[in-house]
Amino acid sequence: MKSISISTEKAVALLEAKKYSSLRIILNAMEPADIAEFMEEVPKEQHPVVFRILPKELAADVFVEMDPDQQELLISGFSDSELREVLDEMYLDDTVDIIEEMPANVIERILKNSTPDMRKVINEVLKYPKNSAGSIMTTEYVSLKEDMTVAQAFEIIRKVAIDKETIYTCYVTDAKRCLLGLISAKTLLISPLDAVIGDIMDSNFVYVSTLDDQEDVAKAIEKYDLLAIPVVDNEQRLLGIVTVDDAIDVMQNEAEEDFAVMAAVTPTEKPYLKTSPFELWKARIPWLLLLMISATFTGMIISSFEDALAVIPALTAFIPMLMDTGGNSGSQASVTVIRGISLGEIEFRDIGKVIWKELRTALFCAVTLAVVNFGKIILVDGYLLNNPAITGNLMVPLAICVTLAVTVIAAKMIGCILPILAKKLGFDPAVMASPFITTLVDAVSLLVYFQIAKILLHC
Amino acid sequence: MKSISISTEKAVALLEAKKYSSLRIILNAMEPADIAEFMEEVPKEQHPVVFRILPKELAADVFVEMDPDQQELLISGFSDSELREVLDEMYLDDTVDIIEEMPANVIERILKNSTPDMRKVINEVLKYPKNSAGSIMTTEYVSLKEDMTVAQAFEIIRKVAIDKETIYTCYVTDAKRCLLGLISAKTLLISPLDAVIGDIMDSNFVYVSTLDDQEDVAKAIEKYDLLAIPVVDNEQRLLGIVTVDDAIDVMQNEAEEDFAVMAAVTPTEKPYLKTSPFELWKARIPWLLLLMISATFTGMIISSFEDALAVIPALTAFIPMLMDTGGNSGSQASVTVIRGISLGEIEFRDIGKVIWKELRTALFCAVTLAVVNFGKIILVDGYLLNNPAITGNLMVPLAICVTLAVTVIAAKMIGCILPILAKKLGFDPAVMASPFITTLVDAVSLLVYFQIAKILLHC
Fold first, then answer.
1. pLDDT at position A4, please?
2. Helix B319-342 with B395-424: angle, nearest 10 deg
3. B4: confidence class by pLDDT, cuts 50, 70, 90
4. pTM for the complete prediction?
5. Cβ–Cβ of B227/A227 closer than 8 Å?
6. Most buried among A73, A143, A198, A435, by the most CB within 10 A?
């Protein structure tokens, strides 16, 4: 990816040389997201200096792109009038996003410096539960009336465009603010100027409710290829819109959360390089402790079988292979099913189909693995490594391979069923991912191993 | 998420009752993506019937949303003139997407029924390597000239809008098709009709080259909150654009690939419920075999220590706990680092920072786990389960806990370094995820365990 924007190094050099007017020219040609990255290279005490160089509108755009701690620092350096200027230029949903990350005293200053109208809207949006459509919507959309002509619509758009997050979809509402239809800027542009909005608007449209989950909002935007989706209340009144750029952020965050949970880490929104070791420890240690303690069971199973292992010590050597193959088989199934649930492809009613599919897959895998492993044990462990315990008694490799097959099947069953059940019970299915399934599969595989050994080897 | 669109059940009932005119009305009010879902409930032999009910434009939109095998089936049922109609209505990037999934004979029919102009463009786009910006771009954008007025620009937009994937960003090019600037429909709408494009266009813009990776294209669209990004060749000539909806698809596919690879599954693009057990087996078995065979090493390590395990059998019981905790610690680090790399937060030059951060995190985790585990072994395994091997000799729990601490630190180091090295060497860092790291960590933890046992327990 290339961009015409000038490299940040040049900007840093100009700042150090205090060549502010050249710096201003260079920054003006850069994208807000790139300037925010440049700010990270700048010592914190110089942030206000750089910020004051930028034109008002660009300054606000850069501010939105910065990290919460940098934003907090900048706000504390702002005079009240500077803060008001930035707030004035910002879109409302961005203001709300920032407020949600700030400590109480900063929130108070922001609200104090907002206009009464803005304050009212901010407070409304803040009322919606975290991760709901209401909490991520913006109230800055273009609304039109049914009886307007296209020419009138253009007049309105021209007047309000600057302050609206998007003008490419306009919303047609009645006197009670109920949503009647949508009209795209494209339709407006290709329609005659005297056409009536009510006749050309699209009254079949997709919408979400304020309390819908933000993940579902993002999914709808993706599924229907939308640039924005309207958010309505119970009486179908239009309260706001969610735009595609915010939907992308939601999707990214949700995917990151799934990755974190699957690796047994508490999700955090901070970039890795900015997270302290103590914060990483806090996100990781509860799961490690939980999983370590739960491994007590596998220990108990092995202890109870100590005498038999003493008689045929060769059995011990295959414990890691059985546990790992079981764990891998299980997480293959669970991760696949968890993503299927996340993407809306798998629902509870599909549980029968999923089990049947995984059962057949597991059978194929189990047979392949058992046969290959039998050959490998005889050849490598038996003859190559010359282990008499194996060449002497074919029942030993047989016990290992039967256990392997049963473990793989059990692991895939556990791996596909647990996430679906978790979802049904209202938990995050991703919690049922690899580490938990590994622990459970470990216990199952050891129990199976020792039972089969007892039967085949009479130990 | 709610939509005004009528439920598919009603449509299915109408189709069964052969009430085609009512069905047409209902389908007309539905979104293309929903109609494609409805088609999945319809028996395959009825697909052409439903398809002929739909208005031309909607039919093409529905066609784009369908699965490749359904598309193939429909094409084979189309007459040449029907195929031409659908191709006519489709955007070019969608046509290319479909062609990429079809067998040779279908591709031939598609190309035969395309206009010479279309055929030329399709062939150009097909030339670009898979996953490049060129392969996902569309050539249907609005291009303007520098010396046009806003009024002239609107005239052009009005004329060509129907056939363009987006009109919200227009591209200003010179006589040689070199890209000079962008202008948004918003800017056009708020500018006076006699303003000259060259004066109001944005000449600081972000662009990509035809050979840039599609993932970087999607990242740029996300980072800069764009609706579309221009794709240029080496001479800065504008060849196409990539729109935000395609960027979303790329991001989703890349995330799914990362999930699959991390779970040791070969990524496939098919939805889970449509993948046969044999296909699932094919995607999973190579990894299971590879990881199973590599577990031979852990077996060898245990075998070589058989005699010592026979003397102090209690040591065997803690092998699963040590291996699992090591594996979990390692995958916490690796998944976090792999995602950091995927999101562009971590690069090779950060390797020192990453190691230093993980080392401190690992120390915190190691100490916590070792202390808790020591207490747990004494209390639970020693007194509660009354294991004399532990209460009799404090060196046993000590050996276990020292091993645990060393394993956790080694696991986190392996987990954070391997993905960064993999990326540097040109491999997908996700391949270095949990299963591989688990196998490596298993071997390390066993070696450490037995070394420490030797020293502390003289066995």
1. 45
2. 30
3. very low
4. 0.82
5. yes
6. A435
